[in-house]
């Protein structure tokens, strides 16, 4: 199927969908350009670090039980 074979309404729908996709991608791109909230980043890092420490402690306990 070539572009010439498509009807005018179908071409209009395809064009509209592409424009919507463009605007969604543009919005997502603008969101990635926003500066990070440093407090939020530090809070997430701390939470992840605490989770990692808990897992290490749990693994150490299991190793101690095996030995």
UniProtKB/TrEMBL annotation:
> Could you tell me the keywords of this UniProt record?
Cell membrane, Ion channel, Ion transport, Membrane, Potassium, Potassium channel, Potassium transport, Transport, Voltage-gated channel
Q: Which cellular component terms (GO) are annotated to the entry?
A: voltage-gated potassium channel complex
Is Transport set as a keyword in this record? Answer: yes
What reaction(s) does this enzyme catalyze?
K(+)(in) = K(+)(out)
Q: Which GO terms describe its molecular function?
A: voltage-gated potassium channel activity
* Main subcellular localisation: membrane
Where's the Potassium channel voltage dependent KCNQ C-terminal domain?
Answer: 1-67
Keyword Membrane belongs to the record: yes
Give the location in the cell: Cell membrane
Domain of life, per UniProt, equals Eukaryota
Its membrane topology: Multi-pass membrane protein
**Name the record gives this protein:** Potassium voltage-gated channel, KQT-like subfamily, member 5a
The species this protein belongs to is: Nothobranchius korthausae
């Amino acid at each position: 199927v070539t572009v010439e074979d498509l009807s005018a309404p179908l071409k209009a729908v395809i064009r509209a969908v592409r424009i919507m996709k463009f605007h969604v991608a543009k919005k997502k791109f603008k969101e990635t350009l926003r500066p990070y909230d440093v407090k939020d980043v530090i809070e997430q890092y701390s939470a992840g670090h605490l989770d990692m420490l808990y897992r290490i402690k749990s693994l150490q306990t299991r190793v101690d039980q095996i030995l």
